[in-house]
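Justification of resources, computational component.

The compute hours requested in this renewal are based largely on the per-chain cost of generating structure records like the one below. Each record pairs the submitted sequence with a full structure-token output. That output is archived, and it is also reused by downstream analysis tasks.
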Amino acid sequence: MDAISQGSIPRAKIGIRLIFTLICLVVLSLMHSLIQMITLIQYIILLITRGYSEPLRSFSNKAAAYVYKLIRYVTLNENVRPFPFTDFPTEMESPEETAMFE
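The structure output for this chain reads:
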């Protein structure tokens, strides 16, 4: 049996995890706004140049990986604390070659 089912986790450790979770939830909220801005900027660039910004696309892919790590940590599905407590995540998977508009 694990420590949770036995009820042997010290409340102080639970409290510390809660504090880190609250910090991550604030960061998650900020990331939500950042991703909205990135999306808007990417579409403005796309409308003007008829092409997307590769650096912005790469950054948004890394931001998506970071949000994924944040969500896994706050939902108790991962124990490794996300950035800024560890390194910023790299891209989880490469983006599609080109975006399709059908």
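Residues 31-90 form one domain. The CA atoms of residues 18 and 74 lie 9 Å apart.
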